[in-house]
Write a structure and sequence with these properties.
This protein has 361 residues and is mostly beta strands. The protein has two helices and 25 strands. Strands 1-8-7-6-5 form a five-stranded antiparallel β-sheet, with no helix packed on it. A four-stranded antiparallel β-sheet has the order 4-3-2-25, with no helix packed on it. Strands 9-10-11-12 form a four-stranded antiparallel β-sheet. The longest helix is centred in the N-terminal third of the chain and has 6 residues.
Length: 361
């Protein structure tokens, strides 16, 4: 891992970009089980943690100290997590005021960071508890993606922008006008995700514009769904990914569903998450990710669960209890608290794979 250490500037004080490693969270729960392909990596939003869960629903790794800790040692209101080699990239959004009883006035985080297995922060963009748009500042970062260039693509939601940041914390590309919401040229309205496509374009879930757009580096929109924004077709675009067949998988949050659309905009698959007896009427699912086996992993936010559904719409796995929020340091069968994101370790179907990290090793 020497190449990565040098790339992050951790080999010594001269030229270091991350500064001294900072302890936070906790390490593995079960020896030898960290970073196992097939495990789930879950952003357990209001439990202020990221967890790795095995096939038996046991938590084998955790970063964050639980729903009552709002210090920099946890990741508050975490919205996104991705395994990058042996490191974990995560986005700490914070919790808005009047959202959860543990933090009625709101608790900002505003960090994107890479942490080790033992919970040390080795790189960070954004300053804990500081909300802003200046150098090394974020405002509600809801998603982060590791790029092949060893840059990080950050969806800086309340700043109305997507930014590409290098390891020395400089913004090298941006889509969206900082602090300006809109639907015109180079404008976004509450963006919720951004993925780098194989063709070099960026796929953006532009949540409050009720659209998914594919843009190039010159800020031109090359594709969008729907062709004309329409809340009957898409209402609250929370996430989008480009599948190997060329279709786009979209989390249509306010319509409580995930849909797969063709390049021509035809819906060829959908799954609605609020039809089960006992469901929250509006669970507002936030992530739908297609898996290598053809199933779809859905973060069913306010149903407090992560579900894997097959193409026929049958639930084949569930972590968390339907519409019940809870916390356990050891297992997901006791519950989750508004999970915002879930991915399978080692499965980047439709997602931007962390090839840049692999090249640095």
């Amino acid at each position: 891992m020497t190449g990565l250490v040098l790339a992050l500037g951790l080999a010594g004080p001269a030229g270091a970009v991350a500064g001294p490693a900072q302890p936070a969270g906790s390490g593995t729960v079960a020896a030898g089980s960290f970073n196992r392909p097939g495990d789930l990596l879950i952003a357990d939003q209001f439990n202020n943690r990221v967890i790795e869960v095995n096939a038996q629903h046991k938590i084998v790794w955790q970063f964050g100290l639980g729903p009552n800790d709002f210090s920099a040692r946890s990741i508050i209101g975490v919205n996104d997590a991705q395994r990058v080699g042996p490191l974990t990239l995560m986005a700490g959004t914070g919790t808005p005021a009047n959202t959860i009883p543990q933090c009625p006035q709101g608790c900002p985080d505003n960090r994107v960071m890479l942490v080790t297995q033992t919970g040390h922060i080795v790189w960070q963009y954004g300053t804990f508890g500081v909300t802003g748009s200046g150098p090394n500042q974020l405002n509600t970062p809801v998603q982060s993606t590791w790029l092949p260039t060893a840059h990080v693509l950050i969806t800086d939601q309340a700043n109305e922008r997507i930014i590409e940041v290098n390891l020395t914390r400089h913004i090298v590309w941006q889509y969206g006008m900082t602090g300006t919401a809109g639907a015109g040229f180079n404008q976004l309205n509450n963006p919720n995700s951004a993925e780098l496509l194989a063709n070099g374009h960026i796929l953006i879930a532009d949540e409050n514009n009720n659209r998914v757009i594919e843009v190039n580096r010159q800020h031109q929109i090359l594709w969008q769904y729907p062709a004309v924004p329409d809340t009957n077709l898409l209402n609250g675009a929370a996430f989008a990914s480009r599948l190997p067949n060329g279709h786009t998988l979209i989390t249509d949050s306010n319509n409580n569903r995930a849909i797969e659309v063709t390049p021509a905009g035809h819906v060829v698959w959908s799954y609605t998450t609020n039809t089960q007896a006992g469901s929250n009427a509006n669970p507002l699912p936030t992530r739908a990710v297609r898996l290598r086996n053809g199933n779809t992993l859905i973060s069913d936010q306010f149903n407090n669960r992560v579900i894997e559904v097959n193409h026929a719409g049958m639930i084949v796995r569930q972590d968390g209890l339907l519409n019940v929020s809870d916390y356990s340091p050891t297992t997901t069968t006791a519950g989750l608290y508004a999970p915002y994101d879930a991915k399978v370790v080692g499965d980047y179907t439709g997602l931007t794979p962390p090839f840049g990290f692999l090249d640095l090793r």
